[in-house]
Amino acid sequence: MTTTAEPEVGRARLRKEDARLVTGRTRWTDNLTLPGLLHLAFLRSPVAHARITAVDTEEARRMPGVIAVFTGRDLAAAQGSLPCAWPITPDQKAPPAPPLAVDQVNFAGEAVAVVVARGAAQAQDALVGIDVTYADLPVVLDLASAAADSDLVHPDLGTNRSARWVFDSAEAGTGGDVDAAIGAAEVLIERTYRQQRLIPAFMEPRSVVVDPTGEQLTMWSATQIPHILRLMLALTTGTPEHKVRVIAPDVGGGFGGKLQVTPEEVVAMVVAQRIGKPVKWTETRSESLLSAHHGRDQLQKLTLAARRDGTVTGLKVELLADMGAYLRLVTPGVPILGAFMFNAIYKFPAYRFECTNVFTTKVPTDAYRGAGRPEATYAIERLMDELAVELGRDPIEVREQNWIKHDEFPFTTVAGLEYDSGNYEAATARAKELLGYDALRAEQRERRARGDVVQLGIGTSTFTEMCGLAPSRVLGALSYGAGGWEHAQIRMLPSGKVEVVTGSSAHGQGHETAWSQIVADQLGVPFEDVEVLHGDTQISPRGLDTYGSRSLTVGGMAVLKAGEKVIKKARRVAAHLMECAEDDLEFAGGRFTVRGTERSTGITDVALAVFAAHDLPDGVEPTLDSEATFDPDNFSFPHGTHLCAVEVDTETGFTRIRKYACVDDVGKVVNPIIVEGQVHGGLAQGIAQALYEEAIHDESGTLTTGTLADYLVPSAADLPHFDTDRTETPSTTNQLGAKGVGEAGTIASTPAVVNAIVDAVRHLGVNDVEMPCTPYRVWAAINGANPSTPSTTPAPGGGLGSVTPTEPTGGTA
Amino acid sequence: MRITVTVDGTAYTDDVEPRLLLVHYLREVVGKTGTVVGCDTSNCGSCTVHLDGRSVKSCSVLAVQADGREVTTVEGLARDGELHPVQRAFHDNHALQCGFCTPGMIMQAIDLLADDPDPDERAVRHGLEGNLCRCTGYQNIVRAVRDAAHRMRPGAGPEAERVAGQMVGGE
C-alpha cells in the first residue's frame, strides 16, 4: 500500500450506489416476494370525523382469494397505540392512537379495516365488501378556531390544545425581556404568516413485508429508521425486542416522511403474527398522500422590535402548530426544533417563543425536510425584508448590521445555542457576485421606472440552521424519548478488505460512498476495498438512523472514532511484529513505519497477522475490529446566503424565477458532488413550498390534493437552473469540520423566493403573498382582492410547466 | 388471455387477466423489478419503459396491449457489460440520489434523445416533464441528458438499443 496521492475526503467521487440503481438491480421493499406471501389492503375512512357505529365484513370475507378481514376491534388487544417519542411538556395531552381505528375516526384516510388476500388485486377488490356505518361528528379544520376549542377532535381530552411550550430569554437568562423591548421599540414590525401544509412525497411509496415464520420476526420496510422502528414495534406490540429484526433495503427517498412508525407497519406485523404467514402491503400514491404524515402547517404571529437606526432589539414569536388528528413519532417536537432558530444569525438582545400545539381532524403532521427550521427561517427572513422596507434601506445591508460577524464566533445566541463558526460576510459577498446583484437592482429600477408589465424582484435569505441532531443531553432537556448518538463498527477482513457498519440508514444520501472516502483516507486502504453495511438490525445492531442532517456530523464521526480504535489496536500488534515501541511507529497512508527507518508494515498485513493470531503480544485479542458510539457535544450550524431574482407578470400574477444563486457554508466537505446534489434537491423542495405545493382539505375535511395531478411536486419544467457555490468555514464541534447539508437548501430557499415576489410588486401596494404564491394569489395581492384563506381547492396554474404562460428558460447561458 | 411479449430480448408467454397493467406484468410475472410504480395517476413516470422502441408509462398500458410487441426496460439497456450511454451519463453527472425515479427517467431520456439528438436545456426540461424526481432538483439530470447526447452522436433511440457495445465516446 502506498500513500494515496490525492486524499479521498474532499474528492468528487462518483457514487458506489449508482451501479445498481441505473441498471434496475434494486431491492425496493415492494420487489420482495416470499413463499405463500399474502397481501394486505386497507379500508380508509372517507369522512374526517365520525363515530364508527358498525362494521360488517361478511361480504368481503367471502370474496375470491380473501383469507381474513380484521377491524380495529378485532385487533384492539394486540395492536397497541402508535408511539409518540416526544412529549414536549409533562402535561401534554395525547389521545390513544390505535393503528386501526376502533370506535372513532379522526381524519379522512385513517385506516379502519384490513383485508388479507392471496393477491394484491384481490385484497383491493374485497375492500368494497366491507360496510362501515359512520355517525358524523363536527369536523375541526381551521387552526385558529380549533385552538379556541370550537369543536373538539378528542372530546375525552377536553380541549384541542395538546401542549403549550415557551422559551423566554429573560427567564432562561440568555437575554432580556421581549415585552420591554417591544414597549421601547422605535420600529415595530408585526406580521402573521402561514406555513401551509406540505406532503413529503418521497418517490417510493411506502411498503412493508413481514415474515413471522422465523425465530425472529423479520420486517422489511421502506423506512428511514430501522433501529427506532424495531424498538418501537417491540414496545407497541409487546413482542420482545430481541425477537424482531427490521430491514430497510433500498429506500426511495424519505425527507422525514419515512421517519415514522406507521399504522400499516404495526398492523402488518400483528396480522402476520396472527395468521402465521408472510404478508406485504404497498401503498398507492393516493394512499400515501392521504394517510402518510404531512409537514409544516403553522400560523406564526410575529413581532420584531428595532431601533430607527436598524438595530434589532427584540423578537416575539407566537405559534399555532397543527398536529393533525394524532401525535405521531415526533409530531409535537417539530415546531420546537424551530424554537431556537427564529433569532437566526442576528444579535437579538431579547427573544420569546411560545407555541401551542393543536389537534384538528386532518392527517397528522410530523417531520418534513427541515422540520421546524424552515418555518423559523421563513419568518425571520421575511421580517428582515419588511424591516428594511420600513427603514427604506437595502435588505442585505440591514441584515449585515445585525448579524454575528465572523470574528465574533463562537457566539452564544439569545436562544442559548453556541454557534461555533460561520462567515456570513463571505457567503453573502460571493452570493451577490454570483447573482449579479447590483446589475439586477439597476434593471429593477429601470423596469419600475418605465412601468413594465413584467416586474423584477430580488429576495434574500441569509439563513442558518441547527444540524447534527443531536447532543443527547440537549434532547433529554427537551424531553425527547431517546438520545442523539450514532454508532459504527469497522471490521478488518483477513484479505485486507474493510467492512464499515453504520447506524445511519441511507435512502439516497450516498453514505456508502462518503463513508468509504472517510475510511479510505483514515486507514490508507483503497476506496474500492471498503464496503459499507447498513439498514438491517441484524447486521447493524445499533443506530439512531438518518434525519436532521445528522449522518455525517454524527454517524460519520462514529465511523472516524471506530477507525481510530482500529489503528490503536493495530499499532500495538505492528510494534510487536517489528519489535519496536509503539511510540516509535508513525502511521500514514495505511502503513506503520518505524520512525527514522525504512521498516514498515501495512495495516492490512497486520489484519492478516491478527487473523492468523500466531504471534500476538500477550493479552491482545485476535481482532482489530472496533466499534464506537459518538455523541456530539454541540449541534453544527451550516449557513448560507440565497438570492433569488423573479419576474412577476403583473397582469397575470405569474412568477418566473429569473435567477437563483446561493452560497452555502456546510463546513468541510467529504464529497462535493454529493453536497451539490443535496443543495439542488433541497432548493427544489423549498422553492416548491414557495410556489407550488399545498395539501388542501375541503370544508368536509377531505384531502383534495390526493394525487400527483393535484399536489404539485414540481417537474423539471417548473424549476430553474441553480447557480451554487460554497464557502468553507469548518465546524469546530467535530473532527471532520462538517456541518450537514441535507436540509440547507429547503430551509433557505422558501423565503428567498417569497421575498423576491413581494419585492417585485411592493410598489403596487403589496407587502405579503401567502404561500404557495400561485398566479392567482399574486394577482389578487396586486389587485387588492382577498383570496380565500386557507383555500379549499388547488389553485390553477401553480406549477406544471405545461400550463405556464411563460416558459422557464433556466440556465445562465 | 394468453399473450407473448418480448421483454429485454426474451420472449415470454403467459396467461394474464385482461385488467393486468403492463407494469405489474413486468414486475410480478416476468420479475423485471427494475421498473417501478410511483403513482396511480400516470403523473410520475417512474414506470416508463419502451414499447417497440418508444417510451410509454407502463402503468397506462395493459399487458394484453403488449401482446406480440417488444418491451425494453432499464434492465435491458446494457450491452456486453457496458452501460448504455444514458445510464453512464446519469452516474457520471450524479443525476440520481435515491434512484427510484431513475429507471423511468433514463428510459424517457433515451426517447427524448431519439427525437432530438442535441436538446438544449429547455428541451430537456420539457422532454422530461412527465417524470418526477424528488431528490435532485433535476439540474444534474438535465446535465446528464445533455452529456449523453454528446456521447451518443449522431443519435440515440431505438438504434442505440440494438447496437452492441460501441456507444462510448464523448469527453
From TrEMBL, chain A:
<dbReference type="GO" id="GO:0005506">
    <property type="term" value="F:iron ion binding"/>
</dbReference>
<keyword id="KW-0500">Molybdenum</keyword>
<dbReference type="GO" id="GO:0016491">
    <property type="term" value="F:oxidoreductase activity"/>
</dbReference>
<dbReference type="InterPro" id="IPR016208">
    <property type="entry name" value="Ald_Oxase/xanthine_DH-like"/>
</dbReference>
<keyword id="KW-0560">Oxidoreductase</keyword>
<dbReference type="InterPro" id="IPR036856">
    <property type="entry name" value="Ald_Oxase/Xan_DH_a/b_sf"/>
</dbReference>
<feature type="region of interest" description="Disordered">
    <location>
        <begin position="787"/>
        <end position="813"/>
    </location>
</feature>
<dbReference type="Pfam" id="PF01315">
    <property type="entry name" value="Ald_Xan_dh_C"/>
</dbReference>
<dbReference type="InterPro" id="IPR008274">
    <property type="entry name" value="AldOxase/xan_DH_MoCoBD1"/>
</dbReference>
<dbReference type="InterPro" id="IPR046867">
    <property type="entry name" value="AldOxase/xan_DH_MoCoBD2"/>
</dbReference>
<dbReference type="InterPro" id="IPR000674">
    <property type="entry name" value="Ald_Oxase/Xan_DH_a/b"/>
</dbReference>
<feature type="domain" description="Aldehyde oxidase/xanthine dehydrogenase a/b hammerhead">
    <location>
        <begin position="23"/>
        <end position="138"/>
    </location>
</feature>
<dbReference type="Pfam" id="PF20256">
    <property type="entry name" value="MoCoBD_2"/>
</dbReference>
<dbReference type="Pfam" id="PF02738">
    <property type="entry name" value="MoCoBD_1"/>
</dbReference>
<protein>
    <submittedName>
        <fullName>Carbon-monoxide dehydrogenase large subunit</fullName>
    </submittedName>
</protein>
<dbReference type="InterPro" id="IPR037165">
    <property type="entry name" value="AldOxase/xan_DH_Mopterin-bd_sf"/>
</dbReference>
<feature type="compositionally biased region" description="Polar residues">
    <location>
        <begin position="803"/>
        <end position="813"/>
    </location>
</feature>
UniProtKB/TrEMBL annotation, chain B:
<dbReference type="InterPro" id="IPR036884">
    <property type="entry name" value="2Fe-2S-bd_dom_sf"/>
</dbReference>
<dbReference type="InterPro" id="IPR012675">
    <property type="entry name" value="Beta-grasp_dom_sf"/>
</dbReference>
<dbReference type="InterPro" id="IPR002888">
    <property type="entry name" value="2Fe-2S-bd"/>
</dbReference>
<feature type="domain" description="2Fe-2S ferredoxin-type">
    <location>
        <begin position="1"/>
        <end position="77"/>
    </location>
</feature>
<dbReference type="InterPro" id="IPR001041">
    <property type="entry name" value="2Fe-2S_ferredoxin-type"/>
</dbReference>
<dbReference type="GO" id="GO:0051537">
    <property type="term" value="F:2 iron, 2 sulfur cluster binding"/>
</dbReference>
<dbReference type="Pfam" id="PF01799">
    <property type="entry name" value="Fer2_2"/>
</dbReference>
<dbReference type="GO" id="GO:0016491">
    <property type="term" value="F:oxidoreductase activity"/>
</dbReference>
<dbReference type="Pfam" id="PF00111">
    <property type="entry name" value="Fer2"/>
</dbReference>
<keyword id="KW-0479">Metal-binding</keyword>
<keyword id="KW-0560">Oxidoreductase</keyword>
<keyword id="KW-0411">Iron-sulfur</keyword>
<dbReference type="InterPro" id="IPR036010">
    <property type="entry name" value="2Fe-2S_ferredoxin-like_sf"/>
</dbReference>
<comment type="pathway">
    <text>Alkaloid degradation; nicotine degradation.</text>
</comment>
<feature type="region of interest" description="Disordered">
    <location>
        <begin position="152"/>
        <end position="171"/>
    </location>
</feature>
<protein>
    <submittedName>
        <fullName>Carbon-monoxide dehydrogenase small subunit</fullName>
    </submittedName>
</protein>
<keyword id="KW-0408">Iron</keyword>
<dbReference type="InterPro" id="IPR051452">
    <property type="entry name" value="Diverse_Oxidoreductases"/>
</dbReference>
<keyword id="KW-0001">2Fe-2S</keyword>
<dbReference type="GO" id="GO:0046872">
    <property type="term" value="F:metal ion binding"/>
</dbReference>
